[in-house]
Amino acid sequence: MNGINILKTLLIITVINLSAKEIFISFQYKVKNYRLSFSHFNCAYAMTYENSNKKLLFTLPCNEKDIIKCCNNNKDKIVDKLIAKKVIIFSEDNLINNSLNNSAKLTFLPHRFDIIIKNSVAYFYIKGE
Amino acid sequence: MKKLSLIAGMLVGGLLFAYQPPTFYDESSNSKPNISNQNKKPCIIENNVPNKPCILKIEATGVGVPPCNGACSVAQAKVMARRAAIVDAYKALAEKMYGIKVNGRDTVKNMILQNSNLRAYVNGLIRGAIIEEEDYKNGVYSVVLSVKLDPNEWNKYLKNAANNYSY
After folding, report:
1. A38: pLDDT strictly greater than 60
2. Is B81 on the interface with A (CB under 8 A)?
3. Any idea where the domains of chain B sit in the sequence?
4. How many CB pairs under 8 A join A and B?
């Protein structure tokens, strides 16, 4: 009986995964003494589907059929488009015994996107705004 | 009579010479029209209150340098320097918008300064900033960012934030 229940839940999760086309995009940059020390870009499928309003933010040329591949191949272009959207910046200057250490961190928090690829063009719709 | 006609002729000639037909702005050309600033009153802020509803444009410059090691090519180094410059410009913009919090600590032992610490930091959310200019010269990438905001709304937000902030 337990096995059947586990199978059922697994089936539900796979169905949700297959039906969910929404994607989370986030990135983070860290700069230390005016040099880029860390960069991270994440583009991943959302586990659940959210029925909310969506707004077209931008379009990008995309030759791949796989959305995640398209995201990762065009990550610099996506960052350039999204950096103007809404970012959190944290910066600190530490002066310890007359030696300066400067660090800054820029974060674009995970946002839901509905990405549709049509005729080699990817349409990025932001959700829940 | 001859003198009068000569003077009249000179006057008419002078007026014709001084007259310039009005120029119209051609939208297709790249040149911008000369907009007279006579009707535009400046937006003056006194005691945190602007004299009229206005939108302020805040600009900040950030710089970034390529990494010492770790970049495979010159192009990659330039791209990394650009990212660093953007982050630095956002930092400068946040400092202008939110101000800087400063913590200082000096440790003194037997009347001798042992340790001196100064920490200046800023934490903020910036929405809708755009890149105005970018340039790469002498190994330094510089980026100018700008953001538009309503001073009335911004002052209200800062007041609320200051009330909620515990010192």
Report:
1. yes
2. yes
3. 2-164
4. 101
